[in-house]
Amino acid sequence: MTEPTFDAQTQFETLKNAKNAVEERMYTPTPEAEIKVQILPDKSVSPAKFIANKTMPGTFRAHPVTIRAMRQDLFAGANNELFADLEYNIHCRGCKTVIDVQFWKFCPFCEESFPKDLPKPLKSHEL
């Protein structure tokens, strides 16, 4: 049996099939709106954090490593349950921090690469 892997296409397929309690789709494949967010590098911001920029509304500040580590192919929705459905938490091999790989290409804390074959996701009692 192979270990689970994580990629944007699998994530998209999961979203397309997600339904709520009354069997309505929770996600539509055609975007209702495109939201662009500008994230500016700032080494004073802690890793894996995004801080609203008070001097430039609509922009955020993040550590340069955080910006490099974040996935560009995120699916956003008004319903935060979708993110919970796609949650894939692992312990980073380098720093042992719990990381949800749906948001990151590599660890934003220590820059450790994720293994090609990901370990099984952590269960809630392991977090």
Estimated helix fraction = 10-25%
Percentage of β-strand residues: 5-15%
Instruction: Report the span from N to C terminus.
Output: 25 Å
Which strand order does the major sheet show? 1-3-2
Number of strands: 5
Write up what this structure looks like.
The chain has 127 residues and is an alpha+beta fold. The chain contains 3 helices and 5 strands, in the order αβββααββ. The strands form 2 sheets. It has a 3-stranded mixed sheet with strand order 1-3-2. It is globular. The model has no long low-confidence stretch (mean pLDDT 81).
Features:
alpha+beta; 3 helices; 127 residues; globular; three-stranded mixed sheet; single chain; 5 strands; two-stranded antiparallel ribbon
How would you summarize what this structure contains?
The chain is an alpha+beta fold. Helices cover 17% and strands 13% of the residues. A 3-stranded mixed beta sheet has the order 1-3-2. Strands 4-5 form a two-stranded antiparallel ribbon.
Would you spell out the secondary-structure blueprint of this structure?
Elements: H1 8-17, E1 38-41, E2 51-52, E3 59-62, H2 64-69, H3 81-85, E4 89-91, E5 98-100
Parallel strand pairs: 1-3
Antiparallel strand pairs: 2-3, 4-5
